[in-house]
Each structure stands twice: as C-alpha cells, then as structure tokens.
Write a structure and sequence with these properties.
116 residues, alpha+beta, three-stranded antiparallel β-sheet, two-stranded antiparallel sheet, 22% strand
C-alpha cells in the first residue's frame, strides 16, 4: 500500500565529520509537486537546486551559532514558509552539499512503496 507523505515529519541528522558537540539538523519532507519541480532543475543548476531544496526542507536545528529564521516565499506558484537564503548563505558549502544530498535521499519513495 502506498501511503501519503507526512509533511510534518522531520528527521534529525548530523554532518558526518561534525563529531565534537555536533549540530543537529531537522530535515523535513518536501511536498511532492515542489520536489518534482526542484528535481527537474537539478541537472542544469546543481548549486541553486541544493539551496532551494534546503530552503524548503530545513525545519530547524539545534546547536548552531546562527538563529533559525524563515520567510514567506512563492516557489513554483506555492506560498511556502522557507529558510531565507541570507541564513543559508552563512552555512559552509560542504555542509550545504551533504545536507541537500540527505534531503534528496529521505524524499525518495521507499523500496517497499516502489514495488506496490
């Protein structure tokens, strides 16, 4: 049976080499329409795609020296509450890359759902 997406669900994630007193990133599920549109841009705009994914998917963090702030933004015709680019620009690029890859992973359909 295929189940609907829980858009309120988050997972806690820490960067692989953030070992001492790590930051915990709260990563969420992206609405399927938004995820499809962002994914369509991925091959031609990799960096922009990574930032857009994180704008929508990061729901908060613990133990980070930058305050978590959101803004209202229209993305692909939808009004969404997202992390502002001015906040994301203060996160190191290697962290942006790893977080965006993890978000892509958690937003894929599970193998069990695929076979149904």
């Amino acid at each position: 049976m295929i189940t609907g997406l829980n858009l309120e669900e988050t997972i806690d994630y820490t960067i692989k080499n953030d070992l001492e007193n790590p930051t915990v990133w709260k990563l969420g599920i992206i609405p399927s329409y938004i995820f499809a549109r962002i994914s369509a841009d991925a091959s031609s705009k990799e960096i922009e795609t990574a930032y857009r994914i994180l704008q929508v998917a990061i729901k908060g963090w613990d133990n980070f020296n930058i305050p978590f702030e959101t803004v209202q933004e229209k993305i692909y015709g939808r009004d969404l509450t997202v992390v502002s680019l001015s906040v994301l620009e203060r996160i190191p690029l290697n962290v942006i890359t790893e977080l965006s890859m993890k978000v892509m992973e958690i937003n894929q359909i599970s193998p069990e759902e695929r076979k149904n």
